[in-house]
Amino acid sequence: MSKTLLSMKKKNSEAFVAPKSCQDAIPIKRVYDDGIFQVGRELFSKTFKFTDINYAVADYDDKQNMLQEYADFLSTLDAGVPTKITINNRRINRLDIERTLLLPDKDDGLDDYRHEYNRMLLDKATGANAMVQDKYFTLFVFKKTVEEARAYFNRAGAEITARLKKLGSICSEMDITERLRLFHDFYRVGEESNFDFDIKTNRRRGHSFKDYIAPDSFEFEGDHFKIGDRYGRVLFLREYGTYIKDTILADLTALNRNIMLSVDIIPVPIDESVKEAESRLLGVETNITNWQRRQNANNNFSATVPYDLEQQKSDIKEMLDDLTTRDRRVTYATVTLVHTADTKKQLDSDTKALMNAASGDRCQMGILKFQQMDGLNTALPLSTMKIDNYRTLTTESLTALHGFRVQNILHTNGNYYGQNVISNNLIMADRRELLNGNAFILGVSGGGKSFMAKQDIATLKLSMDCDIIIIDPEREYSPLVRAMNGEVIHISATSENHINPMDMSVEYGDGANPVILKSEFIMSLCEQLIGTTGLGAIQKSIIDRCTASVYRDYQQRNYTGTVPTLRDFRAELMKQTEPEAQEIALALELFTNGSLDTFAKPTNVDTKNCLICYDILDLGKQLQSIGMLVVLDSILNRITQNRAKGRSTFIFIDEIYLLFQHEYSANFLFTLWKRVRKYGAFATGITQNVEDMLQSHTARTMLANSEFLIMLNQAPTDREKLADLLNISNNQLGYITNADAGSGLIKVGSALVPFVNRFPKDNKLYKLMTTKPGEGE
Predict the structure, then answer these.
(1) Is the separation of the CB atoms in 50 and 88 below 8 Å?
(2) Could you tell me which of 578, 492, 503 has the C-alpha nearest to residue 543?
(3) Residues 377, 383, 388, CA angle at the centre, nearest 5°?
(4) How far is CA 315 from CA 278, 286, 322, 526, in A?
(5) What is the CATH number of domain 3-92+130-268+329-401?
(6) Which of 367, 443, 595, 751 has the fewest CB atoms within 10 Å distance of its CB?
(7) pLDDT, position 611
(8) Which of 398, 383, 406, 382 is CA-nearest to residue 76?
């Protein structure tokens, strides 16, 4: 046995005392507020929780890079310091779902829709795979005092967090309540919602913290144990294949049961590793020399060295190369797994399934005989190796036992966007938690864009107290808006509803002169009105001059009184002496004094409703892009007012590509896109014309900087450009190639996961959201 193992066993050795109670069977001696546990005479532990990464859907090269980063991470672990990586499969508790996911009644006439939404969420969450998977990293250290241990954990924890961040995983410390809840939920399955632990109250009452987590009873048998009324069994990885598949841990934890799997790692110092490898190499070479001597003695001078000896020599030389030239380490590793079931029959069946899963990966699982208590404490993130079963692995070989699979998105106050295709977990995302909550919904016709947008709108209306504003150029959202007690405003050349594009409040300029931003908007508007020729430098100067002039009196009145209109702006243009000013005025005549003067009149629209849909279908193609621009500017005024109230605003812009066809309208939208984030607002662009939109540099920048994207089925050319822009792997592209409606990829922050959104058809919400003929109301 190596010096490292002997030293660790000596430090961790304690006289066995038969437990007299369930509490005694839990090897925790003391707990501290920051989550440090004392689990031995001089042994302390600290647990970190880390998020998964998208390993399963990555390309081969990306997987190799991830494994390389992970190997580098393992190589930095301190020699002789035990480390445990734990994967925890736990069943979702129905009461937790009801408390955290379901929408409460508000008695506003929409509770029937909330009940439908809640039934759908419960069915999805408690369906075939009502499991979530958490991952933990537990450090152990031998120190004389907790202060010394705390100093070590602070240093090592910071390094672990930084290393995992390079992999795309977020790591966070677990405090005392989180760590105790982890064990409570394992020991007391079905009572997860009863956990109510407060360390200060606990100390004041003089209670033991173990009283809150210990089960009602423990019974340890030769090959299984009982926790209360449930049965459990600890398995260990007995035999490793010559080649370990990188999916072995994912396969072992794919069973839909409560499972805790741990990989215990003890890194060996480099000098000891090299000395051990050289000793083994010398032994193999001695065996080869002795074999050749025997063959020569038998006059067999041409005999070939047996394959197994050559292979042993090759393997040891490769290990030496890893240690001396590639900065790898030797580790001792043990894999243990504990699973529980309601009955002994189910437990035996699950054990057989787990063993079959291991054999499919050319490994062999074994049952710990008469070591179930030690095995249980080893499998849980409680203590170091309590069983003598370890395998010598280099850090590179150890990367096969990584446990990474796919990212999950489960924000505390998130909205439902479907299910993760790989894990089947709910996708609950809250755009307010992102650095930039603006979004795009992209896909070909029939891919489910409108349905996803309507579902988002309905969920926001039912769950949050916020303003929701929709620009609807195809009249798709009116039934949903009316059903949700919203207001539909029709804007057309003949409509009595008018919006003055010259409206402006003092907050419009974000602290600067509001006219500066308004001038840019009016340039965008003129660009749309004049046509595809665009604006030259002279025309831009004239527009800027006239904008400042027409607002002068209004500003002097402290933004009160009559607001200027486009007619006033045209009249100001007519006063200018330049011929270019007369040309702009002539181009505006149709829209100020002609038949298309709907945007040249004072605003008479009441926008007090918190859910508003601007229906601009009847504007026709000539006025549609102008109408979108004017409505956007009106929305900007609304957002600035909501900012002062501390109220969130969500904007949905259908056919957004229309605004990217001209330079100034694209720039205005880009400015709006950046500003709304600071104002507590969130904009969503919806389009099927991805290729047209990506021709605009501004649109590409907006897409690349948006942290929330829903990509449904894409046309071939769109797929290539999106893959380029967003660094999507070929495997991930497969999820937006010939995808069914409501299926694709969703990007939430750094997470990019495949999803499917199968909304039940037998309810009113579906009929309000669907655009399929014959299915709507």
Answers:
(1) no
(2) 578
(3) 75
(4) 12, 16, 11, 74
(5) 3.40.462
(6) 595
(7) 94
(8) 398
Q: Contact 342/348 with Cβ under 8 angstroms?
A: no
d(CA 755, CA 759): 13
CA–CA dist 151, 145 (Å, integer):
10
Average pLDDT of each block of 10 consecutive residues along the chain (777 residues)?
71 76 89 91 92 88 88 84 91 74 90 92 75 90 92 92 89 92 90 81 83 90 93 93 84 89 89 79 87 84 81 82 75 93 95 92 90 92 83 84 88 90 89 90 90 95 93 91 92 84 76 80 82 76 92 87 89 90 87 82 84 88 78 84 87 88 77 83 90 83 89 88 86 90 91 91 89 65
Q: Name, in order, each residue with C-beta under 8 angstroms of 508's C-beta and a sequence gap of 6 or more.
A: 514, 517, 518, 636, 637, 640
List of residues 6+ apart from 230 with CB closer than 8 A: 189, 340, 341, 342
What's at 204, amino acid-wise?
A: R
**Is 515 buried (19+), middle (13-18) or exposed (0-12) by CB count in 10 A?**
buried
Tell whether the torsion through CA atoms of 701, 702, 708 and 714 is positive or negative. Answer: negative
Residues sharing a CB contact under 8 Å with residue 150, sequence separation 6 or more, in sequence order: 34, 36
326: which 2 tokens?
A: 């590639």
Q: Which residues contact 529 (CB under 8 A, 6 or more apart)?
A: 587, 588, 591, 626
Amino acid at 747: K
The half-sphere exposure of 204 on its side-chain side, counting CA atoms within 13 A, is 5
The structure's pTM equals: 0.83
β-strand 743-748 against 708-711: which pairing, if any?
Answer: antiparallel
Separation in Å, CA 739 to CA 49, 368, 721, 722: 34, 46, 17, 16
Instruction: Compute the distance between CA of residue 449 and CA of residue 741 in angstroms, rounded to an integer.
Output: 9
Find tokens 């930039």 and name the residue: 436
Which residue is associated with the tokens 């937006």? Answer: 736
Which homologous superfamily is 415-499+603-769 in? P-loop containing nucleotide triphosphate hydrolases (3.40.50.300)
Cα–Cα dist 274/387, whole Å: 26
Q: What is the pLDDT of residues 626-648, one digit of tens each?
A: 888 888 888 888 888 888 788 89
Tokens in use for 148? 């010394």
* Strands 439-442 and 708-711, bridge-based pairing: parallel
Query: Domain spans of the chain?
Result: 3-92+130-268+329-401, 415-499+603-769, 509-602
